[in-house]
Design brief:
It is a multi-pass membrane protein. The protein is an all-alpha fold. Helix content is 79%, strand content 0%. It starts with 5 loop residues before the first helix and ends with a helix.
């Protein structure tokens, strides 16, 4: 009998997690049971992925850059990567603004619901406002200053310092190219081997993916706010999800046009990473799996994937930027504000730049949204209006972020002649080997 594919196992784990979560909400002690005995396994699974994120980026980027053996190749690939990422982000923000102006979801919120939600989530709003204020007060070049670490070992202690890790890895890889090959051979061999070991760790961790997503989804269901609040925000959620689905359609079109690969081939190859992104709400935590799927199942050469994907996980946040555009206009509508066309054009630029600065971790988009609201003159207290459904929408937009990274890696690989045939791993064979 044919064994179940990994993505079906993950889907089964997600469905069972939702069902168990719903069942537990019917018991007085159900939420506590899930939090004490089920949720920790989900956290352990996420921690396993986060544990190898920084070693993976270091090894993969250093290997990828040093494999180029030519600085001109690096600049060509880097320019195309960042250019395509910016274009897709602008498209995402534009789609979000068009949809939110057509649907007008903010006008469906009653004054009573608005007041209730602001009271319930005012504490969380203050936290994000303070974080955004500290970033704003830092100065216009603070982001550039933060890019260069003063201590790489200290930077490597937190996944929030991904840009610093990427800077060091690219700098190290370029330096490795510039020294005589015989002198750098030992270092090159070490990072090549380290990269293989980390990828094998990804294989082993993914054996637990169905169980990890089961625990994560069960916990999310029992911790969700009341149905009444979700109902009041239904049109807002529908608007965001519609925009996100349109972006996935755009990615499939881009892949089909530029790489001549079918949408089905693309979705089949990246689906396990999409499902994991949905469960973890973190592009960084999903990065190891994204790299494995793109390299082994979509045919992208490791030289390209190890360069494009870590950068994408940090600066390519199409789903986040689309959500920021919709959320900003939605909050304005809820407060009865009319945003001028020029202001909404400014939101496109602000959301694009904000998405580049978003950390690849859950909830980071909320901090960046404060800056978008501030630009447009929208009351920041309105953040409280979207907290009730932010968690499930965060899961959905992370799927788009990861899908966009994969699509761009295929396009870049095709443009430099590095897109070949997939080399699939058999997850069940790995499982048997472990046993």
């Amino acid at each position: 009998m044919k064994k179940m594919a990994l993505h079906w196992k993950i889907i089964l784990g997600m469905v069972l997690g939702v069902l168990v979560g719903l069942l537990m909400t019917t018991f007085d002690a159900g939420q506590q049971i899930v939090q004490d005995w089920i949720k920790p396994f989900g956290k352990i699974f996420i921690n396993c992925l986060k544990m190898i994120a920084i070693p993976l980026i270091l090894a993969a980027l250093i290997k990828g850059v040093s494999d180029l053996r030519d600085i001109s190749k690096l600049s060509k690939m880097g320019g195309r990567t960042i250019g395509i990422y910016i274009v897709t982000t602008v498209i995402a923000v534009t789609i979000g603004l068009v949809l939110v102006n057509l649907v007008n979801p903010g006008k469906a919120i009653s004054p009573e619901t608005r007041t209730e939600m602001i009271e319930n989530y005012s504490g969380d709003t203050t936290k994000y406002q303070e974080t955004a204020k500290s970033q704003k007060d830092a100065g216009p070049l603070q982001a550039l200053e933060d890019l260069v670490p003063d201590n790489i070992f200290l930077s490597a202690t937190s996944n929030r310092n991904m840009l610093q890790i990427i800077f060091f890895a690219i700098f190290f890889g370029v330096s490795l190219i510039l020294i005589p090959e015989e002198k750098g051979k030992t270092v090159k061999t070490f990072f090549d081997g380290l990269n293989e070991v980390i990828l094998k760790m990804v294989d082993l961790i993914m054996l637990a993916a169905p169980y990890g997503v089961f625990a994560l989804l069960a916990a999310i269901v029992v911790e969700s706010p009341s149905v009444d609040l979700f109902w009041a925000l239904g049109w807002y959620a529908i608007t965001v999800v519609t925009g996100l689905l349109m972006m996935i359609g755009i990615y499939m079109t881009i892949v089909s046009v530029f790489t001549k690969k079918s949408p089905k081939f693309f979705l089949d190859g990246i689906s396990p990473a999409q499902l994991l992104a949905f469960s973890t709400s973190s592009s960084a935590a999903t990065l190891p799996v994204t790299m494995e799927r793109v390299t082994e199942h979509l045919g992208v050469d490791e030289e390209v994937s190890s360069f494009v994907l870590p950068i994408g996980a940090t600066i390519n946040m199409d789903g986040t930027s689309l959500y920021q555009a919709v959320a900003a206009v939605f909050i304005a509508q809820a407060f009865g504000m009319e945003l001028e066309f020029g202001t909404q054009l400014g939101i496109i630029a602000t959301a694009t730049l904000a998405s580049i600065g978003s950390a690849a971790v859950p909830g980071a988009g909320m901090v960046m949204l404060v800056g978008v609201l501030g630009y447009a003159g929208i009351p920041e207290a309105g953040l409280a209006l979207i907290f009730a459904v932010d968690r499930p929408l965060d899961m959905c937009r992370t799927v788009v972020n990861v899908t966009g990274d994969a699509a761009v890696s295929m396009v870049v690989a095709k443009s430099v002649g590095k897109l070949g045939d997939p080399k699939p791993n058999n997850w069940d064979d790995n499982y048997e080997a472990v046993k």
